[in-house]
Amino acid sequence: MTETEHQLAEIVERILSSYAEHGNINHLDDANLPSRAEIGQLLDDLLSVVFPGFFGADQVDELSSRYFVGDRCVRSLRTLERVISRAMGVDCSREPGSLMAREDFARIRALDLLEHIPEIRRLLATDVRAALDGDPAACSPPEVITSYPGVTAIAVHRLAHHLHVHGVPLIPRMMSELVHGRTGIDIHPGAVIGQAFFIDHGTGVVIGETTTIGARVKLYQGVTLGALSVDPTEANRNRKRHPTLEDGVTVYAGATILGGETVIGRGSVIGGNVWLTHSVPAMTTVMLDKPSLRFVAAED
Asked: What is the pLDDT of residues 244-284, one digit of tens each?
């Protein structure tokens, strides 16, 4: 054995020892987990069905749409069955059950998501309209669908949220984090979001798990809808930790709204960089006092 081979063998042994020492970051039970690549391809297939003709190289018209949608639905069904079944093996909320039970659950949930795509499209049509109405720079549905990160983020959220509320583990969170990486918008799949939702610009927006958002709400970049604490106990995990925004609320850039008991009333406007941890009545504008600016002339 050469010196390099001997050194490599020692490295392998130390890595294997670390597996025993830090077992919580291993997955060595011979069952594959869903991969990020699989979920990424699944999202692309689902989005191509939700927004036909906008994504991918395939040209879709009235003649080919039936075949295109059929092909993408079959691919999505098979992928969903596979990844949901795998995810059931690491579900922290229930026993994994038999392979047959996991496969049955996966098939039911996969078909259910595809069956609800018409309703998801109905909601997304209101979101696209909200983007057109809410941004003077937007000129057409194709522009906002293909170019606006907020529209992409909410489209994926509406798919992931459906899986989340129907008990699918892991997959919804992987979907939300993949689109987070693509758009800079972090929406937990548990958040409940009403129709005609618009995120303008979007970078840095964070929407927590138990957030409730009404209809016709508009957020700007850098908005955080978060929790007051990071207490990891089971009691805290199961209670409402994030705020509620009622219908018609607008929240400007950089605002932070925290707490499960915090309710922003209907039609209210929250100004930029405002920090809120208590409720606001309906039809109220909240803003910071005008800041004091100091100008210092440069020395010659």
From this structure: 999 999 999 999 999 999 999 999 999 999 999 999 999 99
Q: Which tokens in the block code for residue 48? A: 């191509």
Write the secondary structure of 56-87 as one string of H (helix), E (strand) and C (coil): CCCCCCCCCHHHHHHHHHHHHHHHHHHHHHHH
Strands of 192-193's sheet in order across: 192-193, 212-213, 244-245, 263-264
Residue type, 138: A
What are 116's two structure tokens?
């609800």
CB 158 within 8 A of CB 90: no
Please state, in angstroms and rounded to a whole number, the distance separating the CA atoms of residues 67 and 154. Answer: 27
Q: What is the C-alpha to C-alpha distance for residues 129 and 196, in angstroms, rounded to an integer?
A: 7
Contact 173, 187 (CB under 8 A): no
Contact assessment for residue 135 and residue 150, using Cβ atoms and an 8 Å cutoff: no
Contact in structure between 113 and 159 (CB atoms under 8 Å): yes
269 token code pair: 């406007």
Give, to the nearest 10 degrees, the angle between helix 36-50 and helix 65-88. Answer: 150
Q: Look at strands 269-270 and 206-207 and give their pairing.
A: unpaired
Q: pLDDT tens digits for 150-185?
A: 999 999 999 999 999 999 999 999 999 999 999 999
DSSP character for 24?
A: G
Distance, in Å, from the CA atom of 179 to the CA atom of 28, rounded to the nearest integer, reads: 28
